[in-house]
Design a protein that fits this description.
Shape: globular
Structural class: mainly alpha
Number of strands: 0
Largest sheet: none
Strand content: under 5%
Low-confidence stretches: none
Number of helices: 9
Radius of gyration: 18 Å
Oligomer: single chain
Amino acid sequence: MDLPDDIEAAVVQVMTYLVENEQAALLVPARFLGRIHPHFREVVQLLAVQVADEARHMEVFTRRALLRSPTLGSSSAGGRASLWTLVQESDFSLTSFLLSVLGEGTFVDLLAFLVAHAPDPVTRRVAWLAMQDERRHVLFGVAHLAEQSRVDPGLRDRLRDRLRDRLRAAVERRHDALLDTAGLNDDVSDALLVLAAGGWDPASIASGHRRVQALRQAMDDGRRRRLERLGFPADEAAELSALHTRNFM
């Protein structure tokens, strides 16, 4: 199916953005694999499967981007800085929180948005398949952190409070590191708007803008729900969600 040039360019840009983010999501679990004792083989297997998922996503998003275009789209310094903060985090629980609970959880909403507004069946299908994998990653991340807060039934409340303090500090540290960046690449923002609008007339553009704003609200709502599930009070969950990187991941 041949798409209009501007629509195809928007797909290429979004696919490029997805490839960049999936590369970071691959590196994060990969760096922990060598640190796990062989006795915990199930953990090694789970992380290895997650790495394989992300490698597959990178491949399929790259193939879709280059299906009709000779080159990928643009990248941004702010986007790279945001992703690098994920790779730098050395604590597994904090990394799992930033990547799975906040980043990939937000990514699930983005993939659902692409499923709803993809201009062709190939884009829709690859987004849907990747979304199924990302949902598993998010569920593992939330379950891991919930278990961390329940590790010792006698100290459950104290551990949960301690975990909340550590996770909050990690979010604020990341937010401060990214204060001078522009947030989401403008090319990606424009591409999402074009895909949501499906046309260039004023009514379509206005409709596309509302859909992108609804996506951002859905991302915020999802982050709040996951944070509250981990024990954060509603007001603190809202504050932490607002601090999440403007680059989505």
